[in-house]
Amino acid sequence: MNTNATTSTNGKAAPAAPSRLRVWFDQHLHGLAFSLGRTLRKPWATLLTVAVMGLALALPLGLSIVMDNLRHFAGSVQQSREVNLFLKMDVDAAAATKLADELRGRGDVAAVDLRTPEQALAGFRESSGLGEALDALGENPLPTLLIVVPQGDDDARLVAALQALPQADLVQHDAVWRQRLDNWLRFGQRVVQVLSVLLGLGALLVVGNTVRLDIQSRREEIGVLQLLGASDGFIRRPFLYLGVWYGLGAGLLALGLIAAAGGALREPLAALSASYGSQFSLKGLDALHSGMVLLGTVLLGWLGAWAVTGHFLRQTRPTET
């Protein structure tokens, strides 16, 4: 009787051959475990490689976080956009209120805060502690102040319009200071980008050199595998995972260094901000950005290992005769 099942000599069905997907998965799992074992068998060499990579990656990462915090701090300082309009001494309260209402109706004005001479004197008395000296003056020497918050980014036109008002005595605006700060922030961001490329390239070379040394120590074994017909992918796979482990370790070390530095700086920065009456606090990396950093370091390690193993296999590939 014919049957479709394959039977062995004792009448039992022979085990089915593993699928290509199962073979592929087993090979990758073996390469992953084998490469991890290689790193654990050389702890000092592994630690040195990971430390060099971690320090090289932590520097641009830390500078990038500093620049983001500075940009956040600069954007949160609303006083840098305020225009202080000091009115002439002969402008009374009614005229000042009418002018404030007119300015609020402009499309390039977000808000107007009116400070009367009495309010300004009371605030100065409280902040300076010169109450007795101010009482000796007899009359209030401070003018009426309008604090104008611009709408949009074009402040120059508004400042020119305020200076042309007949009631205006003095207009103060920190546009030059803000422009210089923005230029410094853009320059700092470009410096971070350049350092990231250079130090990232250095980390890639560290991985490549470490993997190259490991390849040289297994040169005879690789030659035997090539003679037996092993594919380049089979030979390369453990070394790629070796680069992945180096990249993962370097990424974790870089994140740990950044967290330690943030913890050391957070308390004195909070005290400094409190002395200026600000609630600014240092912001670190959240879970999403930390995951992106780890992914980037893993890809960096993989790329370094891939470049070195590819170059080695091209040089040692057996030639047909």
From TrEMBL:
Residues 82-167 form the FtsX extracellular domain. The keyword Metal-binding does not apply. Keywords: Cell cycle, Cell division, Cell inner membrane, Cell membrane, Membrane, Transmembrane, Transmembrane helix. The keyword Cell division applies. It is a multi-pass membrane protein. It is found in: Cell inner membrane. GO terms for cellular component: cell division site; plasma membrane. The chain crosses the membrane at residues 44-67, 191-211, 239-265, 287-308. Residues 194-310 form the ABC3 transporter permease C-terminal domain. One of its GO terms (biological process) is cell division. It comes from the Bacteria. Belongs to the ABC-4 integral membrane protein family. FtsX subfamily. Forms a membrane-associated complex with FtsE. Part of the ABC transporter FtsEX involved in cellular division. This is Cell division protein FtsX.
